Amino acid sequence: MTRSNGSPGSDRKNHAGRIWDQIIGIYENPSEFFSRFHDLLIGTKRSIEDPSLFHKIALIPLLAWIGLGADGLSSSSYGPAEAFSVVGSSHAYILLILAVVTACTVFVISYTYSRIIENFPGGGGGYIVATHTLGRDAGVISGSALIVDYMLTITVSIAACSAALFSFIPVGFDPLRIYFATALIVMLIILNMRGVKESVTFLAPVFLVFIITHALLLGFGILSHAGNIAPVTMKLNSQLSTDLATVGLFGICAIFFKAYSYGAGTYTGLEAVANGLPIMKEPKVKTGKRTMAYMAVSLAFVAAGLLICYLLWDVHFTEGMTLNAVLAGSVFASWPFGNVIALVTIFSEAALLVVAAQAGFIDGPRVMATMATDSWLPRRFASLSERFTIHDGILLMGGAAILLLFLTRGSITALVTLYAINVFVTFTLSNTGMTKFFYENRKNGEPWKRRVLIHCTGALLSATILVIIVYEKIFEGAWLTIFITGAVIGLCYMIRGHYAKVKRGFESFKNLEDLTPSTGYANTDLVDKKKKTAVQLVTEYNGFGIHTFYSIVRNFPGVYENIVFVSVAVIDSGSFKGVAEIDALKASVRKSLRQYEDLARSFGFPTETYMAVGTDVVQSATDLCRQIGLEYPDATFFAGQIVFEHEHPFHKILHNETAFAIQRRLHYSGLTTIILPVKVRT
């Protein structure tokens, strides 16, 4: 028999004492408490040296279908219904044509994006395709449209989800709908800050429930009416004869094309796979094409199936209910627990819309990161967090989605209009670019003619839908999306222009002729760690680093006997694609360090170099400098900082003040750190 070492009363006192000690600990060291809370909420750091890292965060086809395919599949919640709103029950025969054309459009666009995946395996989707095939200007238009598109993906999906859920709640709670939607967006921000794979895995059950319930809805909805084909056919023939006699063939075509364009929301998520290729499991091309096939088949089946069921079940819009809710109620009415099954079906649609918003968080920041590496956006958007997610991009996408939600007051009609226009701008540019690509790279024996024809068809379909949407809804919100996207494009040109001017300023530093090597030979001596040492933080070998080195030599003549160069191989979205890319990054940093070493030795200094690898340049550089400070007790640390003749607030956004952040941390550690100005004229 085991005896207790103390009485129950003493155990309670000890437990209370431990709780009190924890409270005191939080008060005395709040940073540790918030660090633990951050790790609980966002997750602990991941190591770039972990050999299984890429496997842990990459998506297999099934998870990619869930995380990216949900964007397209969820559009069946409103796309087919929008098309039906034009046709109505009086022109129901058009629904049959729409079902076939909708499925064909899905397959054509999906096929074209499969070719994009095959020929542009680095990801980036429409932005990369337009840039490489049509030029820089087309690329920034496509990229800007994609950024706005993914912001709207989050907003429209969450707004539609909130509207669906609140349709089952008393009207008095309706003012809370927008705040509920905001809470959902915040939840998704937190999930994505933890990492893509974890957020997708968390949402997987929702996706599977949607697939099962809609397979039952459409399967039973069509098969149970198989015996009614004859009377339905007679009814459709009668409607067609009436329309031919009244509005004529031209009028019928006008109704069809209007309905076709109104249902354009059905295709809005098809580009997600091509844009999200970097997060997929190797082999990425095979995984991406398989994911695209899953998405195409599922979306074509659901969208076309819904249009056919609208026709067979003769559904009508009912106030306070979505058209799919009316259909589910009719189809499952005769089933045991039919009301419950119908409710689960509609709730799965609402939940899938939350999953669809996930595509905006996956692809939006990655498009921004790709554009940031090309200097169209602030370069900080290419940076990764400690858990290897695109931190700033996720926060911006989520924040913009919340802003759009409040600006439109959650109006789904307005949001869908904004949404569809940007999607089809990208579709049109991508397919036009691929048409040009295959024509210019045509070879004998290859099926280039078929590929050109398919991409030309895709471009024509996309352009047709785009023109009709803009024409029909120019005064119903289309003008707003043109204005917003145009503003983003203008901002991109301003940012790129600024970076170009700064780069030209750096290049001029390489031609400094007022300084020559202080000795006629390269010093090959080893450093004496006990002597006074200048430690310079550098990036790549460029005019900025050379200017900073010259400043040390000029301003501190004869003071330092050693020069040590420190650099961080920063893992950003451009290099975080696989082990090979990271190895190439390390090799590039080592090459730059060797160039700085040669420069310093030509001035007669014994030289050493150090390198760290990480996603946070400030933390990685600080840790490495602290280590160097222990090895070199008489060291002074130097960093350069860009200084502009006319300082503007946006300079702090475009140029992160890394040097000052490192200086503060090193000063706290007792290490002398000097920042040298590098004046750039812009």
Topology of helices and strands:
Blueprint: H1 8-28, H2 30-42, H3 53-57, H4 61-74, H5 79-87, H6 93-119, H7 125-134, H8 136-166, H9 177-194, H10 196-223, H11 229-246, H12 248-262, H13 272-275, H14 284-313, H15 323-331, H16 338-373, H17 391-407, H18 412-440, H19 448-509, E1 533-538, H20 543-555, E2 562-570, H21 579-602, E3 607-614, H22 617-631, E4 635-644, H23 651-654, H24 658-668, E5 673-680
Parallel strand pairs: 1-2, 1-4, 2-3, 4-5
Helix pairs in contact: 1-2, 4-10, 4-14, 4-16, 5-12, 5-14, 6-12, 6-14, 6-18, 6-19, 7-8, 7-18, 8-9, 8-16, 8-17, 8-18, 8-19, 9-16, 9-17, 10-14, 10-16, 11-12, 12-19, 14-15, 15-16, 16-17, 18-19, 19-20, 22-24
Please give a handful of descriptors for the protein shown.
single chain; 682 residues; alpha/beta; Amino acid/polyamine transporter I; Rossmann fold; 2 domains; five-stranded parallel sheet; 24 helices; 6% strand; elongated; disordered N terminus
